[in-house]
Design goal:
Largest sheet: 23 strands, mixed
Strand content: 35-45%
Oligomer: single chain
Shape: globular
Distance between the termini: 81 Å
Radius of gyration: 29 Å
């Protein structure tokens, strides 16, 4: 049998990277050694063991710096590895570092070349046609006539700047599969308008990137922006004005985890629809119009902070299947259906939330559950709280304004001190308050499913 050894060998020939096998001379596969009836052959486990070792060391060092939030130092270590030698793990970690730093207010990793995109001529913008390249005057190589051309020429870390005006993107779907920064140069998003008239998304985002300070006007029967990936990508959409006249505005799927900051969303159907195991975070965004403001399904999670959901044709926010909603310091107003509608095994968490002027407050179906803290829940012309089948809810320091209905089959849950079950057999509170309201409406009667923490 063959014997293995690794003593007194160069480091790159150690067993981690190669095996030195001694075999009988009858199975010679390499040159023979004098005065020996055996031969030695090296079997490397990697074509480039030094590159693999460098990448592994860099990956370990980058993770330590990333955990300490030393983003610039971590990025510098990533760049010490040649691009050809960077594996998928190091590239994904580099993308995540850039996104986390940008989310905290410091943009790093986008110091590549700058590619500018000129808007369409007024006549071309009116007809929806992209102008011919030969009709333009000669321009530098860094100036392009369409966003698609600029994205094709861009590399990781580049910036695509959109000059003020109207940009026609109807002919193609812009696939963002590079870590790029796409930004409008106007003083406000509406000054840089992306006119998209087609039945495919304007943007298909499959990689970490940043989109900021422009408007997307979508006319067609498809979502305006699609964000989806089998890996955990974390793109950032900041200061965007997105409207869609025929379908949803933003669709999030796969394992994507986009962050939307200071965006305005107006849809015909649903403002944001997410599914699969995705996770969407909204900071200071406004979602208005459409059938629903937001639909969360699958096992996805939605986190909204400082947001407004307004004037929806039906429900404000819908949570289905095993999805979860986390609503903080936000408001839901003016919807023609319930503000928060949770079904199946969905969950909802409301903290410092105002619900008013909707046709219903918080409605729970099947095995859904909800926890509300320091919130004002008004049912408008319908029930403020509705519980069905195995659903249950509990609240603390909340004010329930309007009647409640409980047809659930489960007993009230065991609650901590200071909390109260929102069930029919809970005692109706008479003097409740929230962080933003002080007894402006009528509490639920004693036979309704309202119990408010004193």
């Amino acid at each position: 049998m063959a014997r293995r050894f690794s003593q007194r060998l160069p480091r790159w020939l150690q067993p981690k990277h190669a095996s030195i096998v001694i075999e009988p001379s009858s199975r010679l596969e390499a040159r023979s050694i004098p005065h020996c009836d055996h031969s030695i052959r090296a079997v490397p486990t990697s074509k480039h063991p030094q590159a693999v070792d460098q990448q592994a060391m860099a990956l370990k060092q980058v993770r330590k710096l990333y955990e300490k939030r030393a983003y610039l130092q971590a990025l510098a270590v990533c760049r010490q590895v040649a691009p050809a030698d960077r594996g998928a793990d190091l590239q994904a970690l580099q993308d995540e570092i850039c996104m986390h730093s940008a989310a905290t207010g410091t943009i790093i990793g986008f110091d590549g070349q700058v590619l500018q995109v000129q808007p369409a001529e007024p006549a071309a913008a009116w007809t929806g046609q992209q102008p011919q390249q030969q009709q333009r005057q000669a321009a530098p190589s860094s100036t392009y006539s369409s966003i698609a051309e600029a994205l094709a020429a861009a590399a990781d870390g580049d910036t695509v700047q959109l000059l003020p005006g109207t940009h026609i993107i109807s002919q193609v779907c812009l696939d963002v599969d590079k870590r790029v920064l796409i930004e409008g140069l106007g003083s406000q998003p509406q000054q840089v308008l992306l006119d998209h008239r087609a039945n495919h998304p304007a943007f298909n985002i499959t990689r970490c990137c940043i989109l900021r300070n422009f408007a997307v006007d979508m006319v067609g029967f498809c979502e305006a922006l699609a964000v989806s990936s089998a890996s955990c990508i974390k793109p950032i959409l900041r200061q965007l004005h997105i409207s869609c006249s025929g379908d949803d505005c933003v669709s999030v799927g796969g394992c994507a985890q986009p962050l939307l900051q200071q965006c305005t969303i107006q849809a015909r159907r649903c403002g944001i629809k997410q599914h699969a195991s995705s996770s969407t975070t909204l900071w200071n965004c406004t979602v208005s119009g459409g059938t629903h403001g937001m639909v969360v399904c699958g096992s996805s999670q939605a986190f909204l902070e400082g947001c407004k959901v307004e004037d929806c044709g039906q429900d404000g926010i819908v949570v289905l299947q095993q999805a979860g909603l986390h609503l903080t310091h936000s408001s839901v107003r003016g919807c023609k259906g319930p503000a928060v509608d949770v079904a199946d095994a969905g969950t909802a968490s409301l903290k410092h939330v105002d619900i008013e002027d909707c046709c219903g407050g918080v409605w729970l179906w099947q095995r859904a559950n909800c926890e509300a803290v320091s919130s004002y829940i008004s049912g408008g012309s319908s029930y403020a709280v509705l519980l069905d089948q195995q659903a249950y809810a509990r609240g603390s320091s909340c004010y329930i304004d309007g009647p409640c209905h409980d047809s659930s089959e489960v007993p009230p849950p065991v609650l901590a001190h200071g909390a109260a079950a929102l069930h029919a057999d809970g005692s109706a509170g008479a003097g409740s308050s929230s962080s933003s309201r002080q007894g402006s409406g009528s509490c639920a009667p004693a036979d309704a499913s309202a119990a408010v923490a004193a």
